[in-house]
């Protein structure tokens, strides 16, 4: 039998998306091995979740920049994933932008989940941006990473209706329910070799 795709999950926060991936792998729904979970925040709960499930949890200091990794740090991230045979990088609430060396080491092999219907509301707290703007529908997007913030080819989206009495918290909660559904689904499709990128378009067979 072919070896399972090895994924490396990167996150800076609570890791609820990691949990949904762990649960789907455990249920036999996604044919991947979670090789490691890596964080730029030493005390991030995502690392604790990984340890609880016997997954290698690694903290790599990000360096002095706030929104990206220092060059040496970025090289360590790449080496860490390569050393573990990772074939797909999965960003799950990783709060720093990746630069050329990382992206070139994993061409069309890094995915991200963003809490809006891209290209609307890139950047931070996208659910709050959507609420403040007054849109009726928002949602979440899984996309490949390329240079640029939240701009890569879109793989899958899910729509969430905005309610009149939503707060940022209630809206984000409902978006996360959809995130936990579509992120494992995309990972499954990639693991099954059913996702191809043609320019800006993603073809799912
Ligand atoms: C999610 O809302 C995701 O869309 C965004 O960061 C958040 C991560 O949440 N990129 P969690 O750490 O997976 O709970």
From TrEMBL:
InterPro entries: Formyl_transf_N, Formyl_transf_N_sf, GART
A GO cellular component entry from the record: cytoplasm
Binding site for (6R)-10-formyltetrahydrofolate: 68, 112
EC primary class: transferase
Biological role stated in the UniProt entry: Catalyzes the transfer of a formyl group from 10-formyltetrahydrofolate to 5-phospho-ribosyl-glycinamide (GAR), producing 5-phospho-ribosyl-N-formylglycinamide (FGAR) and tetrahydrofolate.
Record CDD domains: FMT_core_GART (cd08645)
EC number: 2.1.2.2
Keyword Transferase: yes
Organism expressing this protein natively: Candidatus Abyssobacteria bacterium SURF_17
Keyword terms: Purine biosynthesis, Transferase
Site (Raises pKa of active site His): 150
Protein name stated in the entry: Phosphoribosylglycinamide formyltransferase
Pathway noted in the entry: Purine metabolism; IMP biosynthesis via de novo pathway; N(2)-formyl-N(1)-(5-phospho-D-ribosyl)glycinamide from N(1)-(5-phospho-D-ribosyl)glycinamide (10-formyl THF route): step 1/1
Superkingdom per UniProt: Bacteria
Location of the active site: 114
Record domain Formyl transferase N-terminal: where: 6-187
Highest classification ranks of the organism: Bacteria, Pseudomonadati, Candidatus Hydrogenedentota, Candidatus Abyssobacteria
């Amino acid at each position: 039998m072919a070896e399972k795709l090895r994924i490396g999950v990167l996150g800076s926060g609570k890791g609820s998306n990691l949990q949904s991936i762990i649960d789907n792998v455990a249920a036999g729904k996604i044919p991947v091995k979670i090789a490691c979970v890596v964080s730029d925040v030493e005390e991030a709960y995502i690392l604790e979740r990984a340890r609880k499930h016997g997954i290698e949890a690694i903290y790599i200091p990000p360096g002095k920049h706030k929104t990206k990794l220092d060059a040496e740090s970025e090289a360590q991230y790449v080496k860490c994933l390569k050393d573990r045979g990772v074939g797909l990088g999965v960003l799950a609430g990783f709060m720093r932008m990746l630069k050329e060396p990382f992206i070139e080491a994993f061409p069309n092999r890094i995915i991200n989940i963003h809490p809006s219907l891209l290209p609307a509301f890139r950047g931070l707290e996208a659910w709050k941006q959507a609420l403040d703007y007054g849109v009726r529908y928002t949602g979440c997007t899984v996309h490949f990473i390329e240079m640029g913030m939240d701009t890569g080819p879109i793989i899958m989206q899910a729509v969430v209706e905005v309610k009149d009495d939503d707060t940022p918290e209630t809206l984000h909660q409902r978006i996360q329910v959809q995130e936990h559904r579509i992120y494992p689904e995309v990972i499954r499709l990639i693991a099954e070799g059913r996702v191809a990128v043609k320019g800006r378009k993603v073809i799912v067979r």
